[in-house]
Amino acid sequence: MFIEVVKSKIHKVSITEANLQYVGSITIDEDLMEAADILENEKVQIVNINNGERLETYVIKGERGSGAICLNGPAARKAAVGDVIIIISYASIEYDEAKKFKPRLIFPDTYTNKLV
């Protein structure tokens, strides 16, 4: 039996841009992606602390060290620049493995989106 568990989480970062005219997705600073073990094109859930919105999309690699967190396309309607979000990815793993699995959780500075 497989069970879905939290694989990675970027906890409390600020939206730096919302680009409605882009194809879609979320752009994340490559430093944050690497620290959280999130891959480009990986499916993620976005939880907006400011307004309660939740959505799923995929990740685009942002400029390393930029602090970029940009909602693109229709997702841009779900948050405003400055909103604080949580980014979560999940994995399906064997039940017995899930009992021992430890997710990668990172807690960057909420306002600069830089690793501390």
Report on this model:
The protein contains 2 helices and 8 strands; from the N terminus they run E-E-E-H-E-E-E-E-H-E. By secondary structure, the protein is mostly beta strands. It has one domain: Barwin-like endoglucanases (Beta Barrel). The longest helix is centred in the N-terminal third of the chain and has 7 residues, at 30-36. The termini are far apart.
Put simply, the count of helices is 2
Averaged pLDDT:
97
Which secondary-structure class do the elements indicate?
mainly beta
CATH topology: Barwin-like endoglucanases
The span between the termini is: 38 Å
> How many separate domains?
1
Query: How many DSSP-defined strands?
Result: 8
Largest sheet: 8 strands, mixed
**Widest sheet, order of strands:** 2-6-3-5-4-7-1-8
Shape: globular
Helix share bin: under 10%
Strand content: over 45%
Q: What would you say the CATH architecture is?
A: Beta Barrel
CATH class group: Mainly Beta
Helix and strand element order: EEEHEEEEHE
Poorly predicted parts: none
What Rg is obtained from the alpha carbons, in whole angstroms? 14 Å
Features:
single chain; 116 residues; mainly beta; Barwin-like endoglucanases; eight-stranded mixed beta sheet; 8 strands
Furnish the topology, listing elements before pairings.
Elements: E1 2-14, E2 17-19, E3 25-29, H1 30-36, E4 43-48, E5 54-62, E6 69-72, E7 84-94, H2 95-98, E8 104-106
Parallel strand pairs: 1-8, 2-6, 3-5
Antiparallel strand pairs: 1-7, 3-6, 4-5, 4-7
